[in-house]
Amino acid sequence: MLHTASKLIAAVALLAVVTPAQALTIFACEPEWAALSRQLAPEAKVFSATHVYQDPHYIEARPSLIAKLARADIAICSGASLEEGWMPALQKRASNRKVAEGAVGMLYLSEHVETIEKHEKEFFSTEHVHPEGNPHFHLDPDRVQQLAPVISNRLQQIDPDNKAAYQQALEAWQVRWQENLVRWKAMAEPLKGMPVVVQHTSFSYLLNWADIKVVADLEPNPGVPPTMSHLQSLVSTVEHKRPKFVISNWYQNDKGARWLSEQTGMEHANLPATVDLKGEVSDLTKLFDHLLQQLTVQK
After folding, report:
1. 246: part of which helix (H) or strand (E)?
2. What's the order of all strands across the beta sheet hosting 245-249?
3. CA-CA distance, 145 to 51, in Å (whole number)?
4. C-beta of residue 207 within 8 angstroms of C-beta of residue 196
5. Residues 6 or more apart in contact with residue 133 via CB below 8 angstroms
6. Most exposed of 219, 229, 282, 286 (fewest Cβ within 10 Å)?
7. What strand order describes the sheet that includes 45-48?
8. What is the longest distance spanned by two Cα atoms in the chain?
């Protein structure tokens, strides 16, 4: 009997040694944070609630998303009210204390970075106006560099047994990112001062970073779709300011951008506003490469 018990204990001990620790499950509200998390936590299970062809303001709290959040160890979101139309409903239905408001596993990145375009008033109660500032800060390479350690530190806090692995992944990422920053700054140098027309503020951080000048917006007010009267009023602005192109993103209805392009001869650049996890721009490095290349080609 003792011999059998000893064998059982030894088997259990051996199983504990050879069975790897369960990897973290990361719920990312947007694709950019899913892509970054995959690099900072290569062993983790990472899920993105949205994709490049979706407006992250308007997401349905589907049962599949509820199930994903219910199993998450950490949720990483942009914040600044970007997800306020759907994330609270997910949290309530998922009933996961790990990612409840105020929990260590609920990370809003807007709380750790300086935002631009803060609004003190609302326009027609549109969800695209954010008092806390523009939530699309993933399109600024410098801000991404600031936020990577924030994510890594939170992962280390939640999963201290793998702290060394997270630190190593972060350090490797930082080396690569710094090298890319040098290259991107060289790519952006010829774009300084270039005038453009935009549709919404999706690319504000990138345009500010590259010192590209926005001379008009297709939206009469933030989040309000372009109207024909407003588009017609922009024709004279285009003729006077002579912008190089009008920018829209993949999830927007670009009918207004195409109309203005056709009326004025200005180039239309329809660009991804985030990473395409299943496509060619599958991480933030590839996204910045693509965007800067497209802006250079359009120039």
Report:
1. strand 245-249
2. 213-217, 195-198, 245-249, 267-271
3. 22
4. yes
5. 80, 110, 114, 115, 116, 117, 118
6. 229
7. 45-48, 25-28, 74-77, 106-108
8. 94
What's the Cα-to-Cα distance from 272 to each of 50, 62, 81, 140, 189, rounded to whole Å?
A: 13, 24, 21, 14, 21
For the record, the structure tokens of 82 come out as 């970007």
Query: What tokens appear for 290 in the block?
Result: 């693509």
Residue 139, both tokens: 């399109």
Q: Say if residues 139 and 273 touch (Cβ distance below 8 Å).
A: yes
> Strands, DSSP E only, in 89-238?
106-108, 195-198, 213-217
DSSP symbols for 76-127: EE--TTTTTTTHHHHHHHHT-GGGSTTSTTEEEGGGGS--S---SS-STT-T
pTM of the model as a whole: 0.88
Q: What is the pLDDT of residues 203-227, one digit of tens each?
A: 999 999 999 999 999 998 887 889 9
Sorted by where each starts, the structural domains of the chain and their CATH numbers stand as: 25-184 (3.40.50.1980), 190-298 (3.40.50.1980)
- What tokens were used for 160? 């201290």
Q: What is the pLDDT of residues 106-128, one digit of tens each?
A: 999 999 999 999 865 544 444 55
pLDDT of residue 224: 87
What is the torsional sign of CA 167, 169, 175, 180? negative
- Each residue's pLDDT tens digit, 141-158: 999 999 999 999 999 999
What spatial distance separates the first Cα and last Cα of the chain, rounded to whole Å?
82
